[in-house]
Amino acid sequence: MPERLTEMLMDTWTPLIILWITVLPSIYMAPMNQSQVLPSGSSTGLKRLSEEQRVLNRSKRGWVWNQMFVLEEFSGPEPILVGRLHTDLDPGSSKIKYILSGDGAGTIFVINDKTGDIHAMKRLDREEKAEYTLTAQAVDRDTNQPLEPPSEFIIKVQDINDNAPEFVDGPYHATVPEMSVVGTFVTKVTATDADDPVYGNSAKLVYSILEGQPYFSIEPHTAIIKTALPNMDREAKEEYFVVIQAKDMGGHMGGLSGTTTVTITLTDVNDNPPKFAQSLYHFSVMEDVALGEPIGRVKANDLDIGENAKSSYDIIEGDGMDIFEITTDAQTQDGIIRVRKPLDFETKKSYTLKVEAANIHIDPRFISGGPFKDTATVKIVVEDADEPPVFSSPTYLLEVHENAALNSVLGQVTAHDPDVSSSPIRFSIDRHTDLERQFNINAEDGKITLATPLDRETSMWHNITIVATETRNHSQVSRVPVAIKVLDVNDNAPEFASEHEAFLCENGKPGQVIQIVSAIDKDDPKNGHYFLYSLLPEMVNNPNFTIKKNEGITYSLLIKHSSF
């Protein structure tokens, strides 16, 4: 309290001291001027003048004055006396003329050319111009000849507290993480004061909070804003509006003040776990759903935002872990359940899964508040779909001899309706695969019969498609390929590979090969062909020629006797 009382007294007396300094030169110098106006030849007056000159001389020159000041913003009915110029060469005979030049001479500052009194003619503002540099000149009034060298001096504008602090960069915006400890730095504000920072306390600023307590505090001299409450929760309140005041005169009474606003936003940290909107989810799906198709969505909400709210989903328990999968929708953060393997209503009608949602980015500072995950149960009911017939085999292979009788049964296909309703099945042949209509099928039992004769040598394979159709829903259709292999029978005589015409010289020797002959057969016996060659009956008794078997399936025609 004594220290504050001293500062208050200083603030009160400072303007009065400034005024006293300003008026002092004229008050002090007035008696000297009066003493200088003396009758010519007065030895007493000259002696007194000589003594005063020794007191007031500041150099070898004859100029005499004190430093000059003028209070800013001073206004009154008359121009304010700033000070008086005087030279010790002036005997008071009015022969000296004072001239003023420099900053504001003749406009702002006017000098009485006889007395040297300088008056300020205008109201001055230190923040616009703090000092003026002028030049004083004393000349002979009659000849205008200089009596002294010119001398430069300064008139200083004395500051008063006429400017309030300003926050030139305001309003401010700042962020600080939620759940911060007390004393966490938020931001720093800065106010400026146009008053003189050197003279007095006019520019000495003290900062305080007008609005925003008890959440934030400000350091009075550095203007650093810090958190004042622990564990401020963004999810409870995200934005705070703080009003800061800067007051000059060291914050004392009578000081001027300015304010600014600081909007402080709490940024998110991962301090909240994901939480499923419900503990149990029910979904139904048709058994014929395509693989990869979504069958439902679950949602774990997180009060945090951005990266802190992202979660991953997993199936951690259940009887369908290999049947279903769950993925995360990057846009909505939903868990999407999809089918991985085919479903069969007739085999299993329902599944129960346990799914988990866990935060991806965990903040170690809040790990003790975990676990940052949650679980929910998902029940999936498989619904029966009207499925098409199912053949007993994905393909069929039938074999038939080429000489099989018409209407003989070549084989049979079977199919059934997998649905609980078990619709009867009718069979047919896709005639686009049997254009010549060589086969028929019994619509009731699926037996395939021969409709036209077969010839292995013409076509060894026949590929047809059998169609199975539900009688209760003709849109439910299945197809299966049937390959029919025609087996060979010996129904073709051998043929010579080519026509032969042999030539023989008359002197041919016995045993000489005249021609090698071979045969072919369109049939395809399992053990290969075996041909027996002989001469025609009318040639059997010919004594000149004979046939001999070679290696393989060829024979040679030889000369038996040389009787040509």
UniProtKB/TrEMBL annotation:
Cellular localization per UniProt: Cell membrane
Matching PROSITE patterns: CADHERIN_1, CADHERIN_2
Major site of localization recorded for this protein: membrane
Signal peptide per UniProt: none
Membrane topology reported for the UniProt record: Single-pass type I membrane protein
SMART domains, sorted: CA (SM00112)
Top-level taxon: Eukaryota
Record field: transmembrane: none
CDD domains: Cadherin_repeat (cd11304)
Pfam families the record matches: Cadherin (PF00028)
Single Gene Ontology MF annotation: cadherin binding
Cellular component terms (Gene Ontology): adherens junction; axon terminus; catenin complex; synaptic cleft
UniProt keywords, alphabetically: Calcium, Cell adhesion, Cell membrane, Glycoprotein, Membrane, Metal-binding, Repeat, Signal, Transmembrane, Transmembrane helix
Annotated ranges, domain Cadherin: 87-167, 168-276, 277-391, 392-496, 496-553
One of the GO BP terms on file: cell migration
Protein name per UniProt: CADH8 protein
Species per Swiss-Prot/TrEMBL record: Pitta sordida (Hooded pitta)
Gene name, Swiss-Prot/TrEMBL: Cdh8_1
